Amino acid sequence: MSVVPFVNAVLQVRDLSVTLGDGPKIVGDISFSVFPGEILGVVGESGSGKTSIATALLGDARAGAVIACGSVFVDGRDILALDEAERHTMRGSVVSHVAQDPALALNPMRRIGSLLEEVLRVHLPALGKAGRQARIAEAAADVGLPATSEFLRRFPHQLSGGQQQRVLLALAVLLRPQLIVLDEPTTALDVTTQARVLATLRDLCRDRGIGAVYVSHDLAVVRELVDRVVVLYAGHIVESGSRDHLFESPAHPYTRGLLDAVPDISGRHAVRPIGGHAPALQDRPEGCAFAPRCSLRSASCAVRPPLREFGERRLVACHHPVRGKREDVPATFRAPAFAEQRALAVLGGVSASYGANQVLFDVDLSLPKGYCTALVGESGSGKTTFSRALVGAVEDVEGTFEYDGRLVPLSGNRDIDLRRRIQYIFQNPFRALNPRQTVGQILRTAALHFFPIRSADADREVAAVLERVALAPELAPRYPRDLSGGERQRVAIARALICKPELLICDEITSALDVSVQAAIIDLLRQLQREFGLTILFVTHDLGVVRAVADCVAVLQHGRIVEHGPVDRLLDQPEHSYTRALVADSPRLRETVA
């Protein structure tokens, strides 16, 4: 039976299934619609099928995947029923795509103006030079970029991250499409740049009547941006409905679990990870895939529940949907008393440069022993340079560094004991872990480097540290590629802990993680603080995470600390104009400040 699309729908997806070759389903039975001017959010953990759906909306599939069945009507035409030439014509002119990483999506050898011109020449060959210039100027104005000849002659590397993302938006709207598909477009942006890009997208959809599908794992951003939400789990829609309904009174236990795991700048609440893991593609059960992680599961969950109506304009696939509003659980935390605490590390007058470019200017900061200090600021503010100076990884640096009561060098050689006591955890664990070594070998190497112990003792240390970060000892023979993102980050933390450090420097370690995995890492760090008295410097641009994990905050702007104080006072009553702007630009999961 043929599917008749809604007359006024920009996008109508019906019974879409994407499989791994002729094997298991990556996503199945996906149906939803998008209307002019509407933004639909698609959320779920890694592996839920978000990107597979986004790619299918362009009539394509990722390497090794096949669109098995279904229809994707865009502006009234089924893009899956077209041949490749017709799909190529529709991409850009009717449906366009904004990728997650503009640095990879933009040709580094082409100037910005040349990239925009090429799109117009390919899709609108009859358009003259004056017409192309007018269209480029219009697209640039739409996304808040200058259309001057000086700007258009720049290469991508000469732009900031926010400008690069706006260029991708300009490329997406240049041909005035009906639909834009955005795949995690603001993940790597700081809060100020993110707020500008999101405001641009909102205005474009409203003013131009463009429909948008916004794929993300950042629920606070989704809360502020979208009109409706589709929640995916293990390749199927488990809940869909209006933004307000879904965030205020989610019906599926998985949706509630996701929201409970999100830290929020609006107030300090308990951050609770979802227990267990989503099933691997080949291990998905016949029944409800979420049942093994669900406290409401029963014998009926052996059969996969259909997606059914649940109240007004809402669909839920659950045998035990939850009614009523979601309530936050207050967090239990200690009130910091920094005046009574001895500082473990004291940095004075720290200045750092890369060649002729000075990055830090006379920075003073103390790290109270046993507490977590967050270092926040926009991209380019100097956060990573400062944190790397702590481990002696910046060459051109000046200032004083007093650690545990003695002066130590900020650069140059440090003794092995100091290197052991200060450990650095990188943002990307996949790059930070040796891909040729197993988890056990990675941890044993770190232990044997700092401690003259026997191999048998090192193996016991490995087992103990894996348990400490809530990883099974059975993971020791595996390689980093065999682990999930959250497991790799726990291995990176375990590698630091096996050195028995006193100070942990965490550089954006949760920015690329699913909200549930992020919550588990936050919970782990707080537990390590309580049990071992660790001092933590937590570098991040996410003020929601800051509220959940930090005791005090230092705000860095253009290489200078402009405000410093206890986390709740600083986020609730910021004094510096820059801090106020960061707080105002941060997305919130809840409407009101707690």
Structure description:
- By secondary structure, the protein is α/β, with parallel strands linked by helices.
- It folds into 2 domains: 31-308, Rossmann fold (3-Layer(aba) Sandwich); 341-585, Rossmann fold, CATH 3.40.50.
- The strands form 4 sheets. An 8-stranded mixed beta sheet has the order 6-7-8-3-9-10-12-11, sandwiched between helices.
- The longest helix has 18 residues, at 191-208.
- The protein is globular.
- It starts with 10 loop residues before the first strand and ends in a 9-residue tail after the last helix.
* Number of discrete domains: 2
CATH topology title of the largest domain:
Rossmann fold
Q: What does the overall shape look like?
A: globular
**Could you tell me the number of beta strands?**
22
Determine the mean pLDDT.
Answer: 89
Fraction in beta strands: 15-25%
What is the architecture of the largest domain at the second tier of CATH?
3-Layer(aba) Sandwich
* Structure annotation, total helices: 21
Which segments are poorly predicted (pLDDT under 50) over 5 or more consecutive residues?
A: none
Widest β-sheet, arrangement of strands: 6-7-8-3-9-10-12-11
Please identify which CATH superfamily of the largest domain we are dealing with.
P-loop containing nucleotide triphosphate hydrolases
Structural class category: alpha/beta
Classified by CATH, the class of the largest domain is Alpha Beta
